[in-house]
Design goal:
Blueprint (H helix, E strand, L loop, with lengths): L1 E10 L2 E11 L4 E5 L6 H9 L6 E6 L2 E2 L5 H7 L1 E3 L12 H11 L4 H14 L15 H14 L4 E5 L7 H16 L3 E5 L3 H7 L2 E6 L2 E6 L1 H6 L1 H17 L1
Parallel strand pairs: 3-8, 3-9, 6-7, 7-8
Antiparallel strand pairs: 1-2, 1-4, 4-5, 9-10
């Protein structure tokens, strides 16, 4: 569903991504992991059209979209959440989702009902009328997810969706993502919670210093010496210290 081929991004003399190639299949959750500064968010920006690559191609459903802007990609079926929360703070939770529903062509009572149904799906029906900027971080992340789903994506890019969630919220979101993948959605997940990554992802790509150093199943990634040295060893050590 999503194919990235040989993407390079440079900021001045610094190459943030170097010949990066990844794939994301429909009906599966694909992980993208790596240390801070590895280039994960830059790659998300390339995929969603916020950053033009120096070289390489991005294709959605077999159609090249490298020169298309974010709005066109969204209309073609690409949704995204952000590492830094991006909600309309002065609007209610319901109206945050309604904006996306209406942007997709929904109108009137049916649009409001669809927005309400999406809030209910992420367990936020009880805060529909609450202003978004007073929601706790965990609920705000769920609101972002509901708004992304309102765009009826074929591919959903999630940037640290478990950040700020407690254990119960994380479990519910994990179950929801598995349901969405089961319905045919292609999901690309950036996340530092390795327990959730290993539980949810069928395939994982590992970035380090802007390059893909490994791709494979969770078991293959955990056993890869290069990944252990570049990332997983540091994650385990940090967990042991805390």
């Amino acid at each position: 569903m999503l194919q990235v081929d040989d993407v390079t991004v440079a900021f001045g003399g610094i190459r943030a991504l170097v010949d990066v190639s990844i794939d994301v299949e429909a009906g599966r959750i694909t992980g993208l992991i790596g240390p801070n500064g590895a280039g994960k968010t830059t790659l998300f920006n390339v995929i969603t059209g916020l950053q033009r690559p120096r070289n390489g191609q991005v294709a959605l459903g077999g159609v090249r979209i490298t020169t298309k802007g974010p709005r066109a990609r969204a209309r073609m079926g690409m949704g995204r959440t952000f590492q830094r929360l991006e909600v309309f703070g002065s609007l209610s939770a319901l109206d945050n989702v309604l904006v996306a529903v209406e942007n997709r062509g929904g109108l009137g009572r049916s649009a409001r009902q669809k927005a309400a149904d999406l809030l209910a799906r992420v367990d936020l029906g009880h805060v529909a009328r609450v202003q978004a900027d007073v929601l706790p971080t965990g609920q705000a992340r769920l609101l972002e997810l509901a708004r992304a789903l309102a765009c009826e994506p074929k591919v959903l890019l999630l940037d640290e969706p478990f950040s700020g969630l407690d254990a119960n919220e994380s479990a519910r979101v994990g179950d929801l993502l598995e349901q969405l993948a089961g319905e045919g959605l292609a999901i690309l997940l950036v996340e530092h919670d390795m327990e959730m990554v290993m539980r949810l992802c069928a395939r994982i790509h590992v970035l380090s210093f802007g390059s893909v150093i490994a791709s494979g199943s969770p078991d293959q990634i955990k056993a890869d010496p290069g990944v252990q040295e570049a990332y997983l060893g540091a994650v385990v050590s940090a967990g042991a210290e805390t």
